Amino acid sequence: MARENPFAPRPELKIWIDGELVPARQACISVFDHGLLYGDGCFEGIRVYNGRIFKENEHVRRLLESCKALRLDPGRSTAEIKQAMAEAMKANNLTGDGYIRLVVTRGVGSLGLSIHHTACPSMIVIAAAIQLYPPGLYETGLTCITSSFTRNHPNSISPRIKSLNYLNNILAQVEARDAGADEAVMLNAEGRVAECSGDNIFAVRDGVIYTPPTSEGSLEGVTRGHVMELARANGYTVIEKNLVRHDLYVADECFLTGTAAEVIAMVKLDHRPIGDGKPGPITKRLKELFAASVR
Ligand code: PMP
User: Fold this and answer.
1) Residue 131 above 80 pLDDT?
2) Which of 97, 83, 62, 99 is nearest to 222 (CA)?
3) Claim: this prediction has a pTM higher than 0.70
4) pLDDT, tens digit, for every residue of 169-197?
5) Which of 47, 108, 115, 171 is 20 to 30 A from 237 via CA?
6) Is residue 55 annotated as part of the catalytic site, yes or no?
7) Which of 55, 68, 82, 162 is catalytic?
8) Per-residue pLDDT band at 10 (split at 50, 70, 90)
9) Pocket of ligand 1 from Cβ distances under 6 Å
């Protein structure tokens, strides 16, 4: 008998799975799905604001690029994927703010690794409520540590693939929580700054905004791209530049971006206050610009 799970989805939630809408409890994939057996698959985390999908094209494109990199043909076009998300939103009356989790798994196969012994990838759309950082953290900013876990080497599984294997990031997050911090900064194999366990990273110095290029080992964040555009459109200089921890330690401000996080200040790293240890003016301005842009 399974234990009561306080994190179980609401039973009335409807899940879109391979073209059908089913109650959350009946939304199941096989124990032979390679997504479960090997983490073979990919996903997207997408925001809905006011009943509209934010940066839908960008997310579907990234999903299809992840699929392509994994040599996984999801068997659905961009239009069909958009239609699936629309159906999941409608089934759940998602007319306000929410979150969509879009998942592609390799599908059922034999117990070997081979993708040639699998058939029929599965696609899942979960349209649900969003869990943000607690509101207070947007006022105070995040405390971070540098993780001892290295971000995936680009010649290993590319960090630009949003794959179903997030163990590296999960262990980095556990490490942060164990240290009493909110997030973990992950370095690449060369020891330079890549990103955080679930967010991209920016540093501000002398009014200029810096972020590592994605070749440094980060996900090509949709929020990252949007914030860079917003900043440039509002007169800021944004430079993609390799960063080391020193750059973060001596920055005037640092902030993180992500679908769930939006824009949030990082005010402490490895017990050192960044700037004056409070969210800085450029971070606050970008947070406002971001909020205005999604409404
Ligand atoms: N890096 C990682 C590792 C992520 O998982 C995410 C998404 N949570 C991000 C960065 C931010 O990307 P996006 O803005 O597209 O959500």
Assistant:
1) no
2) 62
3) yes
4) 999 999 999 999 999 999 999 999 999 99
5) 47
6) no
7) 162
8) confident
9) 45, 169, 195, 198-200, 218-219, 221-224, 257-259
Q: What CATH number belongs to 14-128?
A: 3.30.470.10
What number does CATH give the domain 137-294?
Answer: 3.20.10.10
Q: Which of 199, 211, 227, 286 to mutate to test the pocket of ligand 1 (most atoms within 8 A of CB)?
A: 199
Q: Taking a C-beta distance cutoff of 8 angstroms, is the pair 215, 154 a contact?
A: yes
H or E element in which residue 65 lies = helix 56-69
- Name residue, tokens 């959350």: 24
- Across 245-254, b (16+ Cβ under 10 Å) vs e yields bebbeebbbb
Does 155 or 218 have the greater pLDDT score? 218
| The dihedral formed by the CA atoms of 80, 84, 90 and 93, expressed in degrees to the nearest 10 | -140
Task: Please give the Cα distance from 142 to 256 (Å, whole number).
Answer: 9
Q: Which of 187, 214, 219 for mutating ligand 1's site (highest number of atoms within 8 Å of CB)?
A: 219
Q: What is the DSSP letter of 73?
A: -
Q: What is the mean pLDDT of residues 260-279?
A: 97
Instruction: Taking residues 216-227, report their average pLDDT.
Output: 97
Angle at which helices 222-233 and 281-293 cross, to 10°: 110
SS3 assignment, position 38: helix
Average pLDDT over residues 44-58: 97
**Other Cβ atoms closer than 10 A to 139:** 10
Both structure tokens of 103: 């998942």
CA of 11 to the centre of ligand 1 (A): 28
Q: Does position 59 have pLDDT exceeding 80, yes or no?
A: yes
In the chain, CATH 3.20.10.10 covers 137-294
Extract the tokens encoding 44: 């997207």
Cα atoms in the 13 Å half-sphere on the side-chain side of 161: 23
